């Protein structure tokens, strides 16, 4: 299962406009290459919120 947030601008702060939803299925984009994933170093200072694929 996945957890997604809508309307959240800062992942480290509570926001009244944010909505949390649980998702049980995903539909990858047909152009997404699953054999070449990005290998991000888990850096707490890096903002991953814009990394959709």
From TrEMBL:
Q: Which SUPFAM superfamilies match?
A: Trypsin-like serine proteases
Compositional bias ranges of the Acidic residues kind: 44-53
Location of the region described as Disordered in the Swiss-Prot/TrEMBL record: 27-53
- What's this protein's name? Uncharacterized protein
Q: Which organism is it from?
A: Mus musculus domesticus (western European house mouse)
